[in-house]
Specification:
Structural class: mainly alpha
Number of strands: 3
Helix content: 40-55%
Strand content: 5-15%
Order of helices and strands: HHEHHEEH
Largest sheet: 3 strands, antiparallel
Radius of gyration: 21 Å
Number of helices: 5
């Protein structure tokens, strides 16, 4: 049976018994668990905190992907996108994969590149 969302549950006066048992009117965002197992109705975080958490979850998922675009590679390494683009033109920087106009960096190559620049 699908989980009841807060909007439909509120109008029907039900609780979300299928997932967490919390009254659906407890939170405007709903009471069902999120992908990370947190229950939004059970936590008293402001909506801005949830937006930050969701943005961090997306960044973490992107960082764990085997291939990253230039923006994701820049975020992971702390190197600007302009620098990565300049290095590609100059034949420097980390190795990359080019498929037509699409440029991707392998996560492994970025890790090796950063390790090779380690100063002791």
């Amino acid at each position: 049976m699908p989980a009841v969302t807060s909007r439909s549950a509120t109008s029907l006066g039900r609780t979300c018994r299928d997932t967490c048992g919390t009254p659906s009117s407890a939170s405007p965002r709903g009471c069902c668990p999120t992908s990370d197992g947190l229950r939004r109705a059970d936590t008293a975080l402001p909506s801005t905190a949830w937006k930050i958490i969701e943005r961090l979850e997306r960044a973490l998922a992107a960082a764990q992907a085997p291939y990253l675009d230039t923006r994701q590679a820049a975020q992971l390494t702390g190197i600007s996108t302009v620098t990565l683009e300049r290095w590609r033109v100059d034949g420097e920087g980390p190795p990359y994969v080019k498929l037509g106009r699409l440029v991707k960096y392998r996560r492994v190559d970025l890790d090796v590149f950063m390790e090779s620049r380690l100063v002791s």
